[in-house]
Amino acid sequence: MTPSPEHRAAWPFRALALALSRGQLDEDDTAVIVYDLEGLDARLAELNRLFPAGTLHAAAVKAAPLRALLARLCRAGAGLEAASGPELHLSLRAGCPPERVVFDSPAKTLPELRQALALGVHLNADNFQELERMDALDAGSSPAASLGLRVNPQVGEGSIAATSVAGQYSKFGEPLEKRGEIVRAFQKRPWLRGLHMHVGSQGCGIGLFTAGARALLDLGREIDRACGERRVLRLDIGGGLPVSYGPSSPAPSMEDYATALRRECPELWDGPMRAFTEFGRWMFAGQGFAAARVEYVKEQAGQRTAVVHLGADMFLRPCYLPDTWRHELAVAAPDGTPKQGSRSPWNVAGPLCFAGDFLARGRELPDMAPGDWLVVRDAGAYTLSMWSRYNSRQAPKALGVEADGVEVLKARESVEDVLRFWG
């Protein structure tokens, strides 16, 4: 169930105040990312309610690769989608059974392919050359492995080119216009049993997702006819449903998406094919916020600037592409309670040594003072996972909040951790 606007507005302050009161944040914790664990549970429950029974919901590891979060989803029956060799290992370390792991890296090495086949994960080949590598590895002799091919359905791009991967050209998969070669690839390989797609993420509409799924279902029927048997047994529709980062970026609901998908692709519910999903942003973004301590407040050239402890190190896209990526900001007092009062334009500067490190410019915010907290809403996906090593700053602590309890999901990096990283 989608939380009410009132809960959504109040929860970060309640969670931050709880963490502070429990002593989970000390003077060294200049920044933190906090997750709503019950909200994460609700997201998975919503997917199970809306999609066909038996669907494997494989959360995208890249969106929030905190092992504690991944393990919690796995304990509740979810799968995990790995886009690299280390993400594959992280999935297994989080307790995900191999039969619930989807391995989608577009640049798999021979050792990675060999290991994935031995483990028996769901492996989606990115291209015909990868299928030839799998031929050489005798992929058909791995009875536990579930093997498919990624296809670009070529249904068009969304409003953000960098997150759209289903145009006429894409770096991912084989294009649908090569359907003859795709069909022949399946005829040649009886062990090839699945189709995979990903249309894109933020900026893509429901129509693109449903059109992509429809195109691959039709391709699957063509493959079945050519092979003389039911060959395509699973359809991986990827993830990508956009999320709202505030009033300026409304987004469709998962219920809207599932309803449209059922209307356009009813055989996912009525037929023998098993559906897979790979939601990341939708799963994690609204379940986490970040908070950074205000270190200094400066007034110069008629502008007020708050210097905080998060910037382009964790919010690469908002800092580099502020017109495309925007987070709602709020301000809390040193005890975590929301600051009230009049609002005025503020610049929010991050801690990195380059001129573009700003979370916001001219944003209407309450007055800030050193010791306050700058709260960044909807930061649960693609933030900590994109942490930058520029200036060698320490990655912040990650906390999970459930009812009235607070747990450390990941400790703040120590100076020694950073030095060890650099060798």
From TrEMBL:
SUPFAM superfamilies: Alanine racemase C-terminal domain-like, PLP-binding barrel. The active site is at C353 (proton donor). Residues 43-283 form the Orn/DAP/Arg decarboxylase 2 N-terminal domain. Residues 288-380 form the Orn/DAP/Arg decarboxylase 2 C-terminal domain. Gene3D superfamilies: Alanine racemase (3.20.20.10), Lyase, Ornithine Decarboxylase, Chain A, domain 1 (2.40.37.10). It is an enzyme of class 4 (lyase). Transmembrane segments: none annotated. Its cofactor is pyridoxal 5'-phosphate. InterPro entries: Ala_racemase/Decarboxylase_C (IPR009006), De-COase2_C (IPR022643), De-COase2_N (IPR022644), Orn/DAP/Arg_de-COase (IPR000183), Orn_de-COase (IPR002433), PLP-binding_barrel (IPR029066). GO terms for molecular function: diaminopimelate decarboxylase activity. The modification N6-(pyridoxal phosphate)lysine is found at K62. Pfam families: Orn_Arg_deC_N, Orn_DAP_Arg_deC. Coiled coil: none annotated. One of its GO terms (biological process) is polyamine biosynthetic process. Keywords: Lyase, Pyridoxal phosphate. Its EC number is 4.1.1.20. Belongs to the Orn/Lys/Arg decarboxylase class-II family. PANTHER family: DIAMINOPIMELATE DECARBOXYLASE, GROUP IV DECARBOXYLASE. This is Diaminopimelate decarboxylase. It comes from Fundidesulfovibrio magnetotacticus. The gene is lysA_2.
